[in-house]
Each structure stands twice: as C-alpha cells, then as structure tokens.
C-alpha cells in the first residue's frame, strides 16, 4: 500500500501556505512535501512540522528566480557557481527540517551552447550535488518535466534522466518518477517500472489530462500502484495534483481505491 505525502504547493490551497500543515494533519496525513523551503521562514516551517507531528519527505534544491521564469540551475553552464551555492543552501535546510531526500530541477538554458556542453554540465553538477549530499547523508532526485507544461526544460523524459543517473553512477542518486509528466510525454509506465524500478527514489501522482486527482483522467493509477507494491517500493507517493473541487473532496479517491492516508 502506498505511503502518501501531501504536496503543500498543490493541496490545501484554500488556506495560506503556513496553514496547510494543520490542514494536512487534520485530513490524516503523516507526511508532506513542497517545493522550496527557502521562500519561507524555515524555523516556522520546523515548528509547524513538529506541532502537527508531520515528516517532511521531499523538497527541491534552489531553482533560481521562479517568478522570473527560472526552473532550475543545473543545465545552464553560466550558472554553475549559483548551482553549487544552492547545494550548500539545500543541505542547510535539510538538516534544519529533517528531510533526507531533495529533488534537482535541471531547468532551462539561456545562452547558446552545444548539446554536449549542456549535458556535460548537467552531469558535472549532478555528480557534485550527489557527492555533497552523500557526505551529508542525503539522497538526490532528478525529475524529468514534460515539455508541454514547461517549454524549454532540458530533461523531459525518463530515459534522458536515467542516462544521466547511469553516467553519474552515484549510490544516492535516483529518479523522481512523476506519473503525470511521464504520461504527458507518452511514456509507457509498464516499461518504466520494468526497466528502471531500481532507480526510482520518489513517486508523484496526478491524472491526465488536467493534472487533477486520480480517477479524473485516463491514467491507470491503481495498476501502477499495484506494480510498485509487487516490486516492493518502500518510498513515498506525493500527491502533486490540482484538486477539481476542495482538497478534502478530492481525497475521496484514496478510500475508493482501497487505500488509506
């Protein structure tokens, strides 16, 4: 049975961010995730986690100026030093908040470079981050993002990310398998789970089209969960979807699928 985490950037948007911890706990969640702790008072986040007995299981490395269009720093050769500073910042936040798994969004590239130079830069940055994380006892995720929702994002498919992971060959480096993004790219979930299961470190779920809760689209999410169970997946499944109604109403699929929070 999946261990679910509530993504607080997507769920409980009926209330301000800092109030979502209480809402998640009241709904029955024990685990939460969100994108960037750096945008908030991290001591206050720590107090919220402790007050509501919640475990933070995932956040992202710094990804630049999100409001200005940045979506990560690892791909652009001109931002290597900024990326390294972000790694240090992420480690400090992880120690404070008690999270041991962080996701790297590689982002976009602003300048003109050869593809080989960009890929070499991604690989070098990923190796650097994985090595720094290893010393800190942390795991590094890499996530492909579909090119429809985020045009210009450099790694769109699972295969592209797996190539980086295999070349890096670091024991604490894993794939963040987002079911929605894979579906948008037309990938076959059965193939991903058959060939790449050992590389999966975190799973996120939303249906397609619409990126709404499971049961609203065409993705056979229960079948995917069954395969994960059969293969012995011990990680978390983040609910990173847009509720069609209220968040609490959108959680009805959990019981309908025979699961619990």
List the helices and strands and how they pair.
Elements: E1 3-7, H1 20-27, E2 31-33, H2 42-51, E3 55-60, H3 80-97, E4 101-104, H4 115-136, E5 139-142, H5 158-168, E6 173-178, H6 179-184, H7 189-196, E7 200-205, H8 221-230, E8 236-239, H9 247-250, H10 252-256
Parallel strand pairs: 1-2, 1-8, 2-3, 3-4, 4-5, 5-6, 6-7, 7-8
Molecular structure report:
With 261 residues, this protein is of the alpha/beta class. The chain has one domain (3-256): TIM Barrel (Alpha-Beta Barrel). It has helices spanning 20-27, 42-51, 80-97, 115-136, 158-168, 179-184, 189-196, 221-230, 247-250, 252-256; strands at residues 3-7, 31-33, 55-60, 101-104, 139-142, 173-178, 200-205, 236-239. The chain has an eight-stranded parallel barrel. Helix 4 links the parallel strand 4 (101-104) and strand 5 (139-142). Helix 3 (80-97) packs parallel to helix 4 and helix 4 packs across helix 5. The longest helix is centred in the middle third of the chain and has 22 residues, at 115-136. The termini are close together.
Annotation keywords:
261 residues, alpha/beta, 8-stranded parallel beta barrel
Uncertain residue ranges: none
Strand arrangement, major sheet: 1-2-3-4-5-6-7-8
Q: How many domains, as an integer?
A: 1
| Count of alpha and pi helical runs | 10
**Approximate shape:** globular
Quote the distance from N terminus to C terminus: 10 Å
CA gyration radius, whole angstroms: 18 Å
Instruction: Find the structural class using helix and strand composition.
Output: alpha/beta
- Class in CATH? Alpha Beta
| CATH homologous superfamily classification | Divalent-metal-dependent TIM barrel enzymes
Strand content: 5-15%
Per the CATH scheme, the topology name is TIM Barrel
Sketch the major β-sheet: 8 strands, parallel, barrel
Topology order in helix (H) and strand (E) letters: EHEHEHEHEHEHHEHEHH
What is the second-level CATH architecture?
Alpha-Beta Barrel
Let me know the number of strands.
8
Overall pLDDT: 98
């Amino acid at each position: 049975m999946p261990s679910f985490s509530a993504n607080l950037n997507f769920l409980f948007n009926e209330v301000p961010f800092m109030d979502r911890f209480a809402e998640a706990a009241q709904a029955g969640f024990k685990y939460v995730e969100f994108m960037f702790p750096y945008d908030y008072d991290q001591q206050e986040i720590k107090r919220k986690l402790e007050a509501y007995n919640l475990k933070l299981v995932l956040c992202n490395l710094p990804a630049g100026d999100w409001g200005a269009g940045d979506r990560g720093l690892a791909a652009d050769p001109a931002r290597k030093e900024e990326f390294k500073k972000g790694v240090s910042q992420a480690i400090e936040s992880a120690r404070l908040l008690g999270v041991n798994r962080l996701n790297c969004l590689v982002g976009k590239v602003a300048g003109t470079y050869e593809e080989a130079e960009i890929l070499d830069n991604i690989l070098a940055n990923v190796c650097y981050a994985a090595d720094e994380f290893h010393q800190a006892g942390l795991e590094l995720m890499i996530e492909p993002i579909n090119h429809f929702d985020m045009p210009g994002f450099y790694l769109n498919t699972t295969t592209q990310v797996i190539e980086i992971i295999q070349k890096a060959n670091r024991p604490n480096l894993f794939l963040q398998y987002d079911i929605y993004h894979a579906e948008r790219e037309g990938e076959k979930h059965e193939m991903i789970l058959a060939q790449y299961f050992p590389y999966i470190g975190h799973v996120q779920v939303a249906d397609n089209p619409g990126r709404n809760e499971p049961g609203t689209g065409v993705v056979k999410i229960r079948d995917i969960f069954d395969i994960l169970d059969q293969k012995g997946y011990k990680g978390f499944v983040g609910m990173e979807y847009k509720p069609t109604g209220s968040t609490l109403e959108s959680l009805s699929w959990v019981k309908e699928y025979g699961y619990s929070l």
